[in-house]
């Protein structure tokens, strides 16, 4: 990985497939390590014949073997969320599974890592997907907090989604409802106020151990 600067998207398909195969053998022999899981899911998303259902099945396999680890449940909720978005929010079963695994992820998280955003919502010609911040080559949160130009977001397809502001608890905590009981927490700061309840809010979305998180909120429309 060092020669590719830890960016999976730059690795040739032959190498990607070899990594995926090696990690799958570890599943069969139940010798899986947390690092194997991380490598598998980050490699598999770049494989030419990527299948989201296989990704979910592997995470379920790993969860059965490593039921005390947070990574399988984190990726299960993330993958089910992507399936829901790619169904145009039409398949309620995906949202139900997403909510179930979000709860398991929150229950499994360990102190100090609940809000870090490892994955981000992106979109390309094939639909929605998750992008790891390592593969971006920059920290999206840092760009947002510095108010930097977000042209880099466009290069990797980091995309906004909209939801309705349903809860406002103060400048550090509010929620938008994006449908079927899925809610996204974000910090309104001085941009969004309680008077905006019921309004559509646009955010970038990330995936953390504590669930769905929104960034850079603006009033939509």
Would you summarize the structure shown here?
With 221 residues, the protein is α+β, with helices and mostly antiparallel strands. It contains 8 helices and 7 strands. Strands 1, 2, 3, 4, 5, 6 and 7 form a 7-stranded antiparallel sheet that branches.
Could you list some keywords that capture this structure?
single chain; 221 residues; alpha+beta; 7-stranded antiparallel sheet; 7 strands; globular
Question: Could you characterize the architecture of this molecule?
Answer:
The protein is an alpha+beta fold and 221 residues long. The chain is 41% helix and 25% strand. The protein has 8 helices and 7 strands. The protein has helices at residues 13-28, 34-44, 52-65, 70-86, 92-108, 133-136, 140-145, 151-155; strands at 117-124, 127-132, 160-170, 173-179, 182-186, 200-208, 211-219. Strands 1, 2, 3, 4, 5, 6 and 7 form a 7-stranded antiparallel β-sheet that branches. Helix 3 packs antiparallel against helix 4 (70-86). 33% of the residues are buried. The mean pLDDT is 88.
Write the layout of secondary structure elements.
Layout: H1 13-28, H2 34-44, H3 52-65, H4 70-86, H5 92-108, E1 117-124, E2 127-132, H6 133-136, H7 140-145, H8 151-155, E3 160-170, E4 173-179, E5 182-186, E6 200-208, E7 211-219
Antiparallel strand pairs: 1-2, 1-6, 3-4, 3-6, 4-5, 6-7
Helix pairs in contact: 1-2, 3-4, 4-5
Let me know the average pLDDT.
88
Main sheet properties:
7 strands, antiparallel
Structural class: alpha+beta
Q: Which percent bin holds the helix content?
A: 40-55%
Counting DSSP H or I runs of 4 or more residues, the number of helices is 8
Flag low-confidence runs.
none
Order of helices and strands: HHHHHEEHHHEEEEE
Q: What is the number of beta strands? A: 7
Q: What distance separates the N and C termini?
A: 43 Å
Q: Could you tell me the strand content as a percent range?
A: 15-25%
């Amino acid at each position: 990985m060092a020669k590719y600067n830890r960016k999976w998207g730059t690795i040739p398909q032959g190498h990607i497939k070899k990594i995926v195969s090696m990690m799958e053998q570890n599943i069969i022999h139940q010798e899986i390590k947390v690092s194997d899981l991380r490598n598998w899911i980050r490699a598999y998303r770049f494989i030419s014949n990527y299948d989201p259902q296989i990704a979910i099945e592997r995470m379920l396999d790993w969860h059965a073997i490593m039921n005390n680890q947070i990574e399988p449940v984190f990726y299960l909720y993330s993958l089910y969320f992507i399936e829901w978005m790619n169904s145009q929010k039409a398949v309620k079963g995906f949202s139900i599974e997403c909510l179930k695994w979000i709860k398991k992820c929150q229950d499994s998280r360990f102190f100090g890592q609940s809000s870090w955003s490892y994955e981000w919502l992106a979109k390309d010609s094939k639909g929605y997907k998750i992008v790891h911040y390592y593969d971006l080559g920059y920290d999206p949160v840092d760009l947002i907090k510095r108010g930097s130009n977000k042209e880099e977001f466009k290069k990797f397809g980091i995309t906004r989604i909209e939801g309705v502001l349903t809860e406002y608890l103060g400048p550090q905590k509010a929620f938008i409802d994006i449908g079927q009981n899925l809610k996204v927490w974000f910090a309104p700061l001085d941009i969004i106020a309680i008077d905006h309840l019921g309004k559509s809010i646009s955010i970038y979305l990330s995936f953390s151990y504590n669930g769905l998180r929104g960034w850079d909120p603006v009033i939509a429309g």
